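Lab intake sheet, docking and co-folding queue.

SAMPLE TYPE: protein with bound small molecule
LIGAND NAME: zinc ion
LIGAND FORMAT: SMILES
REQUESTED OUTPUT: full 3D complex as structure tokens
PRIORITY: normal
SUBMITTED BY: R.K., bench team

The fields below were copied directly from the construct record.
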Amino acid sequence: MANPKKYSKSKLNKFRKLIQKEIETVHKDMEEIKEGVLESGKASQSYVPDSVYSVHMADAGTDSHEKEKNFQFIVRENSYYQNLISALKRIDNGTYGICKECAEEPKNLCETCPLIPEDRLMAVPIATMCVDCKEKDKMGLL
Ligand SMILES: [Zn+2]
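RESULT FIELD (auto-filled):
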């Protein structure tokens, strides 16, 4: 990089706290969903025909749909978690907040280029690209 811009230590600490808070939230969500999955497993094992619970038989399809949804949720949370971890690593190695596209070849699409603007990082702390590059990436132009 010809002009290596970086976020200050205090800014990076702010992002680090934000990411750590996100990691805690993901942890909690994952625990809750795992407990929920276990509980629904127990519930179906102790299912007694002709009990008041039999009305729920009609919802059997919904149950597996719930499990599928939970599974999707866990997969999504897990990849978000991985992204948060690598964001922390980028803070440690000093590459956090730098658009990976603009860093290679500054495109000067944003004022702060190649830095990802602070408000974007506050909203999406795992971002590795500025909005312009992300849009191009989505359109398959990169
Ligand atoms: Zn960029």
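REVIEWER NOTE: Residues 99, 101-102, 107, 129-130, 132-133 surround zinc ion (CB under 6 Å).
SIGN-OFF: pending second check by T.M.
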